[in-house]
Design brief:
By secondary structure, the chain is mainly beta. The chain contains three helices and eleven strands; from the N terminus they run E-E-E-E-H-E-E-E-E-E-H-H-E-E.
Length: about 170
Amino acid sequence: GPAYDLRGATTVEIGYRGPGTDFELLLEESGIISTCRLATFEPDPAVDLEFARHPVVQQLIIKSEWLRDAFNELDPTSDAVSISISATEPYFRIATIGDNGSTEMTYARDERILDSYFCNEEMENRYKLQLILRCRSALAMSDKSKIRVNQRGFLCFQFMVPTDTD
């Protein structure tokens, strides 16, 4: 084969010994060696945020005006809101504790308030209040609100918003 003249050539050596070690580049050009080490890391395992992967154990459909009123009563100084759905009284409960005191709204299993309801497993979960309140604009436009909680305590809000049929 043809002869190559490697004088003046640049060579590179790449090395990685495995998890937790640096990724290394060694560059040699005209007798000058440059070394570059890049720190690597192992990512945390991905969090399973798939709501549907776990069975829904609580669900209700509430007239949105009731939920809007409840959200308006929550203490804005609270860090968290507690939401519980139970097979016994009170069937649906929303509560906060903040600098201004505590607020608790409870709802009976009344067809004027709740359109549908089921609870296969009683549980009370706490959620960051500021995250819960982000749904206010959708709630403001809705007629009904569906609240679902899966076995892991993941909360899902869905809002029925009327559309113009003109």
